[in-house]
Amino acid sequence: MTRERPDATRRARLVVVGAGFAGASLLAKLPAGLQRPGETLLVDRQEQWEFVPLIHEVAVGRVHPDTTRSPIAPLCKDRCGSLRAAATGVDLEARTLHTTAGTVGYEYLVLAGGSSAAPPPEDMAGHFQTFWSLDDALLLRSSLASAWKRARRGEPQPGGLTVALVGGGTTGVELAAEVAVLLRYLGKRSSRPLEDARVVLFEASDRLMGWLDPYFHEVAMERLLRLGVEVRLNTPVEAADPSGVGTPDGWVPAGTRVWTGGVRANPLVESLPVEKDAAGRALVGEYLTLPGHPEVYVLGDGGVYEDLRYGPLPPTASVAVQQGPWAARDLGARVRGAPRYLFDYFDRGYLVSLGPGDAVGRAAGAKVRGAAAHALYRSVFLYYQRGRRDRLLTGVDWAMSRAIGRLGFD
Ligand SMILES: Cc1cc2nc3c(=O)[nH]c(=O)nc-3n(C[C@H](O)[C@H](O)[C@H](O)COP(=O)(O)OP(=O)(O)OC[C@H]3O[C@@H](n4cnc5c(N)ncnc54)[C@H](O)[C@@H]3O)c2cc1C
C-alpha cells in the first residue's frame, strides 16, 4: 500500500476505510464506474488483515499466527488506489476524512473499520488481557505457555494455571472450550498432576450468549461442563489483582485473567456526531447510510441496522459480508443514476465452536450440534477466508495440530 507524507491532501470519488469483511467484500464487487485508482481509494491502517474468528485457535497453539494474516494490497490491484494510514476523524460537513497521512476529500465514504474489545472497568483494567486481535491471542498464548512451564517445574505462582474468563458471550464460550481442551492436553504431558489447571467462565446474567437462541446456551452448558469448565452464571466480577478475581461469592485464584465482555465500536465511528447505540455503533438507515448524510455508509461492526424482522443486527462477519456487496450494488446504481437498492438482510444463521470436533448452531433454519456442526463451522470459515493460500494454510494447521502438537507448548 502507498505510504504518504502526513500533510498530503488527496481526493477520490469513493473512499473506503477498512479492508476487513465488509470493506473487502465491497471491493470484490466494486461497480465498473468506480473501478479506477483515481475514483476509489482504500484506506487501512495495516498492511495485513487479520482473520479474527480463528484467533482462539492461535491462542491455544493449534493455528499458526501467519495463517490468520492476509495482505491487503492485492484487494485493489489496478482497480483502486490504496493508502496505508489510520483514519482519525471525519468532517461530515466538509466531506473530508482525516488520516495520519493527511486529509482525503470524498463524494461517497464507506466506514468499515470494524470494532474493538469492550474494555474492563478502569479499576480492574491492569489485571486483565482482552481478546479481540491477533496480538491479544499471542499474548494469551505466551501467558498460558509460561504458566504451564512454571507449573511443570513445580514453581509456585499466584493463581497458578487457573484461567478466569469474564464474559459469557460467544468469544468467552469459544475460548473457554479451547483452553479447557488445551489444559487437558498439557495435563497428559506433565509428569506431575496439574491440580490448579482450571477454566472458570464468569457471566453476570443467567445465560450464556444471551443474544442467541436459548438452544446455544443449553448445548454450550452441557459441553463446557463435560470439558470441566466451571461456568458461574449470575456472577459479576467486581475486583481483580495479579492473583485472581473477586465476585460476590468470594475470591477465585486465577493466574491468567481474560476480559471477554463484549464489543465496542471503532473510535472513528464513536467520534461521529450522530446517534449511536450503547456500544457506540452508529445507527444507520435502510440504505446503511447515516441519517442526514446519505453519502456516508457505515458497514459491518461500526453500524447498527434495525431489521424489521430480526431487530438490531449483531456485529458478526456474516452481517458484514452481506453488507459489503450490497453497498457496492447501491453505489453502482447511484453513479449510474439508476434506482437504488434497499438493504435486505438474509439470516444465514450462526455457529459457535465448542472446541475441536464440537459446535452448536443454527443453519438454514435448523438447529445443529456436535461433530456435524463443527464440520459446518469449519467449512464456513474456509469459505470466508481470502483465497487458496489462506484456506490451504488453515487446513494444514488443523491437520498438523492433531499429528504433531501445539505451537508454543510443545
Ligand atoms: C475473537 C472473535 C471471534 C469471532 N468469531 C466470529 C464468528 O465465528 N462468526 C462471525 O460471524 N463473526 C465472528 N466475529 C466477529 C467478526 O470478526 C466481526 O463481526 C467482523 O470482523 C466485522 O467485520 P468488519 O468488516 O466490520 O471489520 P474487520 O473485519 O474487523 O475489518 C476492519 C478493518 O478496518 C481497519 N481499520 C480499523 N480502524 C481503522 C482506522 N481508524 N483507519 C484505517 N483502518 C482501520 C482494520 O485494520 C481492519 O482491516 C468474531 C470476532 C472476534 C473478535
Q: What oligomeric arrangement do these chains adopt?
A: single chain
Main sheet characteristics = 8 strands, mixed
Measured by DSSP, the beta-strand proportion falls in 25-35%
Query: What spatial form do the alpha-carbon principal axes imply?
Result: elongated
How many separate helices?
9
First-last Cα distance: 37 Å
Poorly predicted runs are none
Determine Rg (CA atoms, Å): 22 Å
The pLDDT mean sits at 93
Tell me how many strands there are. Answer: 26
Would you kindly provide a written description of the structure presented here, covering whatever features stand out?
There is one protein chain. This protein is α/β, with parallel strands linked by helices and about 400 residues long. It folds into 2 domains: about 10-45 and about 85-115 and about 265-345, FAD/NAD(P)-binding domain; about 120-260 and about 350-405, 3-Layer(bba) Sandwich (FAD/NAD(P)-binding domain), CATH 3.50.50.100. The chain contains 9 helices and 26 strands. The site of flavin-adenine dinucleotide (FAD) has 32 residues, from helix 1, strand 2 and helix 7.
Features:
five-stranded parallel β-sheet; binds flavin-adenine dinucleotide; 410 residues; 30% helix; FAD/NAD(P)-binding domain; 27% strand; 9 helices; alpha/beta
Quick structural gist:
This protein has 410 residues and is α/β, with parallel strands linked by helices. It has nine helices and 26 strands. The longest helix is centred in the middle third of the chain and has 20 residues, at 134-153.
